[in-house]
Amino acid sequence: MIAKIKGTNDILPQSVGEGIFVSQKWQELEAAIRKIAENFRYEEIRTPAFEYTELFVRGLGDVTDIVQKEMFTFVDRGDRSLTLRPEGTASVVRSLIENALHRKQNVNKLYYIGPMFRAERPQKGRYRQFHQCGVECLGSDSPLMDVEVMLIFWQLFRSLGLSGLNLVINSVGCAECRPNYQAELQSYFSDKLDRLCSDCNDRYGRNVLRMLDCKNERCQSILDDAPPIEGNLCESCSSSFDAVRRTLDMLEVPYTVSARLVRGLDYYTKTAFEIIHNGIGAQGTIAGGGRYDGLVEAAGGNALPAVGAAFGMERLLLAMEAEGVNQRLHHGVDFYVVALDETRGAESFKFLNELRCAGFCAEMGEPGRALGKQLKVAAKVDARFALFTGGAEWNEGTLVVKDLAAQQQREISVEGDYLEELAAMLQA
Ligand code: HAM
Asked: What is residue 330's predicted lDDT score, i.e. its pLDDT?
């Protein structure tokens, strides 16, 4: 047997799937995403799953972990280097420039749902193919839009029933003020390198800001005492960050400011944020994002301010599972037709079809199969009611309906408007 690639997952039908990898949960999550995106007036964009490697190297930064270690890159038959997208923002920016979306409207509010690929070491919540939902607002420099992208996810997660969430924000400055801060960090760390881990030492020369993200126990006290960026922010970054905080306060959205929040991608400017869930272990960051005012220009377009964020759908479903709110995304069969007479299977099938045409989720047992066996299947598919066809009552124009949870039976006439009666029973 050829097995699936490590770090990838099959999302199976509800009848056989387990945990978060059940297709119905994904469908319902996607429906919830589309609904909230519509409410916030974000429109869907779908970009290819692979792009020229150069787009990600230039877009994400050639010293980031993703570009240095985690991309699935290959050379095609025409000798071009291609990469499976590790994230969605660079592709959205490429598409915006290529299709001149910014000329068609000043502000483009876009969202996407789809698989992303990173060659990371697989563990719970960290996969090689995973799925992101992202939102990108391109063309506005208003801090209100920073808050808007936070709110979309915050409200979505809350509406799905999650409560163990922390919104953490910071400002990472811009091309004008960040170099001063980087120099200050370098001088702070310069005489402490022998007490820091090898990753920190590596990042010291490569990308000093990322040292603040180190999780190694022995580095924590030194990192905690590092100078915060706040005093180094230029006027524009500082007033933008103030506005973000004021707006969150006004909206009564709880958040914490962490001077150590720096993101793993180089394109961020000003606001950076993450939404963290405390119940799913090491990979607790469900969503991350921020402003990226320099990316459109770096990718070959005109300067255009932008802000966005993405969340990992696997991690969100894991958080829902940890909090036991997954059940909300679970529907069984409405009516299971127990067909008692083998010779009248077609008649039961016609009845089944009427139920389906009326919009019910309906399934039927094998006509003539033992009653107990059919009821067992009905329980397995989580049916609310069993409907008996082909028996003595059925012959007299009566439908026997059994509530499978309450184990109670009643009869309704099939001469009258029985579909309406069945709909009312489902609502009850
Ligand atoms: P990111 O922080 O790299 O940001 O990824 C966003 C989310 O994707 C993470 O918080 C996590 O939930 C999920 N994720 C990342 N890697 C994995 C993995 N290996 N397995 C499972 N889930 C994963 C971005 O990708 C940016 N493009 C977000 C953004 C959009 N910023 C501005 N606009």
From this structure: 47
How remote is the CA of residue 117 from the centroid of ligand 1, in Å?
A: 10
Radius of gyration of the chain (CA): 27
**Mutation test of ligand 1: which of 11, 85, 116 has the most ligand atoms closer than 8 Å to its C-beta?**
116
Q: How far is the CA of 138 from the centre of ligand 1 (A)?
A: 19
Q: 108-139: buried (b, 16+ CB within 10 Å) or exposed (e) per residue?
A: bbbbbbbebbbebeeeebbbbbbbbbbbbbbb
C-beta of residue 307 within 8 angstroms of C-beta of residue 147 = no
- Through-space distance between the first and last CA atoms of the chain, rounded to whole angstroms: 48
Residue 178 pLDDT exceeds 80: yes
Q: Among 124, 129, 130, name the best residue to mutate to test ligand 1's pocket (greatest count of ligand atoms within 8 A of Cβ).
A: 130
Average pLDDT in the 328-355 region? Answer: 87
Q: In the predicted model, what is the mean pLDDT of residues 344-370?
A: 92
d(CA 285, CA 311): 8
1-52, pLDDT tens digit by residue?
Answer: 999 999 999 999 988 888 999 998 999 999 999 999 999 999 999 999 999 9
With a CB cutoff of 8 Å and minimum separation 6, the contacts of 124 are 280, 281, 282, 283, 318
Q: Say whether pLDDT at 281 is over 90.
A: no
**Alpha carbon of 357 to ligand 1 centroid (Å):** 41
User: Which atom number of ligand 1 is nearest to the Cα of residue 263?
Assistant: 2
pLDDT computed for residue 359 by the predictor:
81
What does the pLDDT look like over 406-427, one tens digit per residue? 999 999 999 889 999 999 998 8
Query: What is the average per-residue pLDDT within 307-323?
Result: 97
**Number of the ligand 1 atom closest to the C-alpha atom of 127:** 20
Distance separating alpha carbons of residues 221 and 351, to the nearest angstrom: 70
Q: How confident is the model at residue 328 (pLDDT cuts 50, 70, 90)?
A: very low
Whose CA is closest to atom 8 on ligand 1? 312
Given a cut of 80, whether residue 66 has pLDDT beyond it is yes
- Model-wide pTM > 0.90: no
Q: For residue 120, give the ligand 1 atom closest to its CA.
A: 19
